[in-house]
Amino acid sequence: MPVTDVKHDLDALTLTITADFAAPVERIWQVYADPRQLEKIWGPASYPATVVDHDLTPGGRVTYYMTGPEGDKHAGYWLVGEVDEPRSFAFQDGFADLDFNPVPDLPLSANVYTFTAHDGGTRATYVSTYASAEALQQVLDMGVVEGATSSLNQIDDLIAA
């Protein structure tokens, strides 16, 4: 199980997840850079993702939806900011309707994903920052920790294939 630490800080408005992978930084980068690989890990196994648009460049946009066990669909988007391939990227992550329009009453997060060499593999640090403690609490109540942990724990199987 790659996830080694999960911390949320309502004062700093952050959720930080740390995970270690037995693969080089460049391989972990590819999980996010390739939309077909991203589909295999973005969301828990019971809510597989379909990536519709994928532009992991500064100013780019990624759109996706996850399909639940009952066929229900939940969409989201990334607005990509800084990209330092293969070390890090930053993006805004938001909830969307099925036409990929932002849903304004659900929290938007600012995210920085960082990949560094560590113990012969990669340490990934995922930091999400929210606009308010209420927004962070809302996603915590929605199960973001369980969902993100489940998603990240799928990376081992993907990189082993």
Per-chain topology:
Elements: E1 3-9, E2 14-21, H1 25-33, H2 35-41, E3 49-54, E4 61-67, E5 73-84, E6 88-96, E7 109-118, E8 121-130, H3 133-141, H4 144-152, H5 155-160
Antiparallel strand pairs: 1-2, 2-8, 3-4, 4-5, 5-6, 6-7, 7-8
Written description of the protein model:
The chain has one domain (about 5-160): Alpha-D-Glucose-1,6-Bisphosphate, Chain A, domain 4. It is built from five helices and eight strands. The chain has helices at about 25-35, 35-40, 135-140, 145-150, 155-160, and strands at about 5-10, 15-20, 50-55, 60-65, 75-85, 90-95, 110-120, 120-130. The protein has an eight-stranded antiparallel β-sheet. It is globular, with a radius of gyration of 15 Å.
Q: Any descriptors?
A:
161 residues, alpha+beta, Alpha-D-Glucose-1,6-Bisphosphate, Chain A, domain 4, globular
CATH class: Alpha Beta
Backbone structural class: alpha+beta
Shape: globular
Order of helices and strands: EEHHEEEEEEHHH
As for the CATH topology, it is Alpha-D-Glucose-1,6-Bisphosphate, Chain A, domain 4
At CATH level 2, the architecture is 2-Layer Sandwich
Share of residues in strands? 35-45%
Pfam family, one: AHSA1
Family: Belongs to the AHA1 family.
Provide a short characterization of the protein structure.
The protein has 161 residues and is of the alpha+beta class.
